[in-house]
Amino acid sequence: MLKATRRKEELETSLQRITRDAQSLEQTREALARVHLENVRSATFSEKQNIISKLGIMVYPSEDHKTVRILSRLNPDTEFKVSRQKISMASPKL
Questions:
Q1: How confident is the model at residue 9 (pLDDT cuts 50, 70, 90)?
Q2: Half-sphere exposure of residue 16, counting CA atoms within 13 Å on the CB side?
Q3: What is d(CA 52, CA 77) in angstroms, rounded to the nearest whole number?
Q4: For residue 48, is it within any domain?
Q5: Other C-beta atoms within 10 Å of 72: how many?
Q6: Residues 59 and 32 in one domain
Q7: Which domain holds residue 89?
Q8: What's the pLDDT score for residue 90?
Q9: I need a labelling partner for 89 at 20 to 30 A (CA). Which of 7, 23, 43, 61 fits?
């Protein structure tokens, strides 16, 4: 009986620790997202351009400047689930 009670207490303690760790992980993710957003907002144009070139993202405007074609060399087999397909979008001037 004492052994079962001790085991139950160990499991409850373990469950509490896992719950705290999950909450801590979520708080860390939120903090990183805030830092990321602040970095993107405060980055200069050349810094943003450097990041885009490191990711292998290429933007090609059409001859009539009404659409843009965006290509990426990112590998879709990564854990980030990024698509490598060509994307066309309307110009923001429309």
A1: confident
A2: 6
A3: 19
A4: no
A5: 17
A6: no
A7: 55-94
A8: 59
A9: 43
Residue 78 structure tokens: 């990564």
Q: Give the pLDDT confidence score for residue 77 in this predicted structure.
A: 58
- Residue 41: how many CB atoms within 10 A of its CB? 7
Site of tokens 């009670």: 5
- Bridge partners for 65 per DSSP: none
Same domain for 86 and 60, yes or no, is: yes
* 3 and 27 part of one domain: yes
Is the pLDDT reported for residue 91 higher than 70?
Answer: no
- Tell whether 79 is covered by a domain: yes
Helix (H) or strand (E) holding 45: helix 45-55
Contact 66, 91 (CB under 8 A): yes
Report pLDDT digits (tens) over 27-80.
888 899 999 888 888 989 898 888 888 888 888 888 887 888 888 776 655 555
